[in-house]
Specification:
About 75% of the residues lie in helices and about 0% in strands. By secondary structure, it is mostly helical. The model has no long low-confidence stretch (mean pLDDT about 90).
Length: about 100
C-alpha cells in the first residue's frame, strides 16, 4: 500500500514539474512570477487529467491577454474543448474542499 502512495506522489510531482516547464515555455517567465502556489497545483491537476496541450494552450491564450501574472479565473476563461474543460472541472472538483476556486461572486 505505501508503495502505491509513493508512486502516485512521484507521478503528481512529475506533473507539477512538467506544468512549471509548460508555464515557462508559454510565457518565458519563471512560473512563480506568472501564477500563485494554488494555481500551479490546479494547473498540475488539469495537466494530470487532460494533458499538457490543454494547459499550454490555456496559458498561452491567457498570457496574450494579461501580458503578465494570471489567476485561476482568467486561465479558466481561456480553456476550450470538451477534453480540456473536463480537466478544468476535475481540478476545480478536487480542490473545492480546500480552496475557494473559482471564487464565489
Amino acid at each position: 500500500m505505501n508503495y502505491s502512495v509513493d508512486i502516485l506522489a512521484e507521478a503528481v510531482l512529475g506533473h507539477c514539474y512538467q506544468t512549471s516547464q509548460l508555464i515557462f515555455n508559454a510565457t518565458d517567465w519563471h512560473p512563480s512570477l506568472v501564477v500563485d502556489y494554488a494555481t500551479i497545483w490546479k494547473l498540475t491537476l488539469m495537466n494530470y487529467t487532460a494533458g499538457p496541450g490543454c494547459v499550454f494552450d490555456a496559458i498561452v491564450s491567457t498570457f496574450e491577454i494579461t501580458e503578465g501574472p494570471m489567476d485561476w479565473s482568467e486561465i479558466s476563461a481561456n480553456v476550450s474543448g470538451e477534453h480540456c474543460i473536463y480537466g478544468l472541472e476535475y481540478a476545480n472538483q478536487i480542490t473545492a474542499k480546500y480552496f475557494d476556486f473559482p471564487p464565489n461572486e
